[in-house]
Amino acid sequence: MDVFQLRDRVLKGGRITRDEARELFTFEGPDLQDLFAAANRIRHHFRGSQVTFCSIMNVKSGKCAEDCVFCAQSVRYQTGVQDYQLLDVEAIVTEARDAAKRGSGCFGLVAAWRGLSKGKVLDTVCEALRRIRAEGVIHPDASLGIIEDASVAKALAEAGLHEYNHNLETSRRFFPKICTTHTYDDRLRTIRLLKAEGIHICSGGIFGLGETIEDRVDMLFDLHEVGADTVPVNFLNPVAGTPMGDVPKLSPLDCLRCLAVARFILPGVDIKSAGGREVCLRDLQGMMFFAGASSTMLGNYLTTLGRSSAMDLQLVQDCGLTAAEKGAFAAY
Ligand code: SF4
Question: In terms of pTM, does the model score above 0.85?
Answer without folding.
Answer: yes
